[in-house]
């Protein structure tokens, strides 16, 4: 696959129902556009906890108590990462009345994963860094359910297989280690439908927020292979 270069920074969020293939599309986008980086709020949180940073210890106390990590704490983690990469001015803070202008250099391009999930979180993120494209990935429910039923994972590495279109070389075994594959705990239909209901409740106002800002783009397809070329074309039009 030929790679393409951005002419300006792409600050991206992918939104879609559980199982729609956000991870697959993010990987393909980063291969196609090497200037894109993944910025995962979950990874930043886990790293902070593991490294016992002050913010990580504060977050861990919330997690141990069974409560959600506050939005401002997640934003501080994201801001710290953006500053470390020099993608926003070092003086940027959460208390700024208006967002500091982020770097428009193509190398300051990222896909933000895991945050925001609600319109309230999105408004808080707006005050930190302006997102310039939100992609709503849409795949029919029956297709996603079939995909989930056929999905197997190698838990230690995170490698994902699908007996419908991405089979392991040996049935039930990881291609690299030969270790057994397992099902995700949340891959049952009942669990997925509960997650879908929650996603729909929060995503509608989230998408409306970004639609009002003029940065929302919807793409539909029955498979990741159908969606990817449309995504590539849109990214090339907007950023290349």
The spatial strand order of the largest sheet comes to: 2-3-1-4-7
Main β sheet profile: 5 strands, parallel
* Gyration radius, rounded: 19 Å
- Please give the number of β-strands: 7
The stretches of 5 or more residues where confidence is low (pLDDT under 50) are none
Number of helices: 8
Going by helix content, strand content and strand pairing, the class is alpha/beta
Spatial gap, N to C terminus: 16 Å
Strand content: 5-15%
What percent of residues adopt helix (DSSP H or I)? Answer: 40-55%
Instruction: Name the overall outline.
Output: globular
Overall pLDDT confidence? 90
Order of helices and strands: EHEHHHEHEHEEHEH
How is this structure best described in words?
The chain has 240 residues and is α/β, with parallel strands linked by helices. 43% of the residues lie in helices and 15% in strands. The protein contains eight helices and seven strands. The chain has helices at residues 22-32, 41-50, 54-64, 71-84, 119-126, 141-149, 189-212, 224-239, and strands spanning 11-16, 36-40, 109-113, 133-138, 151-154, 159-162, 216-220. The strands form two sheets. The protein has a five-stranded parallel β-sheet with strand order 2-3-1-4-7, sandwiched between helices. It is globular and about 55 Å long. It starts with 10 loop residues before the first strand and ends with a helix. The model has no long low-confidence stretch (mean pLDDT 90).
